[in-house]
Amino acid sequence: MEKVVTMESSTTTTATDLEDDESSTLLDLTSYQLHDLDSVELPSNLTELDLTANRLSTLDPRIAQLSDLKNLSLRQNLITDAAVVPLSSWNTLSSLEELVLRDNQLKNIPDVSIFKKLLVFDVSFNEIASLHGVSRVCNTLKELYVSKNEVTKIEEIEHFHQLQILELGSNKLRVMENLQTLVNLQELWLGRNRIKVVNLCGLKCIKKISLQSNRLTSMIGFEGCIALEELYLSHNGITKMEGLSSLANLRVLDVSSNKLTSVDDIHNLTQLEDLWLNDNQIESLEGFAEAVAGSREKLTTIYLENNLCAKSPNYTAILREVFPNIQQIDSDVFS
């Protein structure tokens, strides 16, 4: 089992100081506010180096010699485009599997083509305006995170046939496109963009989708996602529940903060456990039991607050009768 090693002081840290453990392979320097690594000795057998939450503006060239390194985190530093240029020539690190550059000062996708076994690449919370350059990232990638940037177009991702998680939330995307080759994609996170129309480009294996806080007015487009388990569509302009009847594996459905006036097209969803309908325009619970017939036994959580129907004096009692195994109604939790 790997042993976690952290810095004990601001003086020079040696391998002996690191608990005299030659087998230690993880060096965690999180939150030491380091401006450089001059005071740190980097054991040659490191497999993980976590430099999260420091003040680094350059990359220590000694990192390039850590031939066993698998995971490198530079999250929350002061790394710029110029600072990451050396990465493209660090041949010794070609077996790196996880690279985290989240929360820095990048304006472009860095050239990480040298890493031929990369599985996780995170450049979220930067100032990246385009995915140009992501085509150079190796096709072994399983997780790509580019959230909270300035990206306007989904592009250069067609070669990621092994990708399982794609996070592009909080950007400036208007169109869902170029997803059709991501045949193993299981999670797609596109919340806080400007998307108006659902287009999943024929994806079949996807299990989680978030399109919260976009500009959707329709739910049409999910019909073919038969493996879908979680669907998050809150804070849009959706007026009707539709295109859901084929989603037999759906466990979580969030359509809160939309413009719904009724509950429709979910009577066949026998696996539904969480249903979020709060902050809509549903006036009555009349016909509600029939609308949710398929999930009566399975549902454990429902939110309907801030609808007119929730003002009924027997609102909670009705719902508890409809759902015999309910555990939570709005903020009320039942034992």
Description:
It is a single chain. This protein has a domain at 216-335: Leucine-rich repeat, LRR (right-handed beta-alpha superhelix) (Alpha-Beta Horseshoe), CATH 3.80.10. Strands 1-2-3-4-5-6-7-8-9-10-11-12-13-14-15-16 form a 16-stranded mixed β-sheet, covered by helices on one side. It starts with a strand and ends with a strand. The protein is elongated. The chain has helices at residues 81-84, 288-291, 315-322; strands at 4-6, 26-28, 48-50, 71-73, 98-100, 120-122, 143-145, 165-167, 187-189, 208-210, 230-232, 252-254, 274-276, 301-303, 328-329, 332-333. It contains three helices and 16 strands. The chain is mostly beta strands and 335 residues long. It comes from Medicago truncatula (Barrel medic). Keywords: Leucine-rich repeat, Repeat. Residues 1-16 have a biased composition (Low complexity). InterPro entries: Leu-rich_rpt, Leu-rich_rpt_4, Leu-rich_rpt_typical-subtyp, LRR_dom_sf.
Q: Would you summarize the structure shown here?
A:
It comes from Medicago truncatula. The chain is mainly beta and 335 residues long.
Question: Which helices and strands, and how do they pair?
Answer:
Elements: E1 4-6, E2 26-28, E3 48-50, E4 71-73, H1 81-84, E5 98-100, E6 120-122, E7 143-145, E8 165-167, E9 187-189, E10 208-210, E11 230-232, E12 252-254, E13 274-276, H2 288-291, E14 301-303, H3 315-322, E15 328-329, E16 332-333
Parallel strand pairs: 1-2, 2-3, 3-4, 4-5, 5-6, 6-7, 7-8, 8-9, 9-10, 10-11, 11-12, 12-13, 13-14, 14-15
Antiparallel strand pairs: 15-16
